[in-house]
Design a protein that fits this description.
The chain is α+β, with helices and mostly antiparallel strands. It has five helices and six strands; from the N terminus they run H-H-E-E-E-H-E-H-E-E-H. It has a six-stranded mixed sheet with strand order 1-2-3-4-6-5, with helices on both faces.
Length: 168
């Protein structure tokens, strides 16, 4: 699936800037990095499934404890399943897990302004746009601008999934 989606995902996925000492390039390296972060309590990887088939991933990264209690969420989906409502559902479930089971207070999602599909996910979920962050992340070989969206536990007392599924 990843090989089939390489061109679809390349323009949105993080890359390491020149001179980085860490492992680079492969999906396997990314998986190893996410697993390391999870073992240290700094992240949580989740797979997205549909009809018992892997179709994507939602990853919680940068978990910060102490007085902050926040993290970032990123996601991707197989091109064949994009636009079917799978990703907003998966993100809502992960955010609710972060708030209810993990005890985080705030979740942020950073999206490139030209990534209309990803912007639609946060729109469907009703996340608040907070800022534009110039040259925020290294993506596809260069530093790219992002828009920052966020939600706090107080904004969704019944859960983000409940808000997503509620008629507006």
């Amino acid at each position: 699936m990843r090989a089939r989606n390489v061109d679809w995902l390349r323009q949105w996925e993080a890359t390491l800037p020149p001179g980085s000492a860490a492992e680079t390039g492969s999906f396997g390296a990314m998986v190893r990095g996410v697993r390391r972060q999870a073992r240290r309590g700094g992240g949580m990887p989740f797979v997205t499934t549909l009809d018992d088939r892997l179709v994507g991933q939602v990853t919680v990264t940068g978990i910060t404890w102490g007085s902050a209690r926040w993290a970032q969420v990123g996601y991707w989906i197989d091109r064949e399943h994009a636009g079917q409502g799978v990703t907003p559902l998966a993100v809502a479930l992960v955010v609710d897990h972060c708030f209810e089971a993990v005890g985080l207070h705030r979740i942020e999602i950073a999206i490139r302004p030209e990534n209309t599909a990803s912007l639609r996910v946060v729109e469907k979920l009703g996340l608040r746009r907070e800022a534009q962050a110039p040259r925020y992340l290294h993506i596809n070989g260069d530093w790219r601008d992002h828009e920052i969206f966020a939600v706090t536990a107080e904004e969704v007392p019944e859960g983000l999934l409940s808000r997503y599924l509620s008629p507006r």
